[in-house]
Design brief:
225 residues; alpha/beta; 5-stranded parallel beta sheet; globular; binds adenosine monophosphate
Length: 225
Amino acid sequence: MSFKDSGLGLHVVFTGAPGCGKGTQARILKEKVAICHLSTGEMLRAEAAKGTPLGLEIKALLDKGEFATDEMIINMVSKRIDEADCKNGFILDGFPRTLHQAEVLDEMLDKKGINLDAVIEIQVPDEIIMERILGRYACMNCGQGYHDKFQKPKVYGVCDVCGGTDFYRRVDDNKTTVQNRLVNYRALTYPTIPYYEKKGLLRCVDGTGTIEAVSNKVDSILGIK
Ligand code: AMP
């Protein structure tokens, strides 16, 4: 039985080091199965862009590659999950990022009567991660991702998806910050992997193939045709 027939929706976590392709895969899956893509990184960047006192506090953390506080994140995610567009399910991208967040997520989902279907870890070695992150950029208008070497737009300077001509690079996509993000990943996020393995939810995917190859592996894990 596929998740569509079950009537319970699909609730998935994408995890892995920064730059492993979580966001890319989450956007592809979202289009295929019409569920919500909840990226805590995007939520934080949107808050930071508002320039409010909270936004400035968040921006200072993000620019250094430090984590936002669990409290900030947990409230944000809990509210978002209750919104109507999450009724068929969600893909959590970048959350949980600490063991504490994973434990709180369990309690939160218990209260909401939701079960996680899978936690998919996308595995990519650090050397590849650095090259991927330092070359990536996105369309300012529609958010479509590109890469200087691996994924150029068909026409130079023009977005394939929306025709936009303005692009941006994330402020935290620089060598020093990426190194710090990788250290934080190993120390703070990696402990969630054995946590989900013990629960029988962990599925690992080799993230070094093409975007399409990785997406096919994700689909087969989730039983999506
Ligand atoms: P991402 O877009 O997932 O790479 O996240 C960008 C940045 O946002 C991270 O480097 C963290 O500083 C922050 N961030 C994203 N998600 C979380 C989270 N669940 N907990 C704490 N900080 C987070």
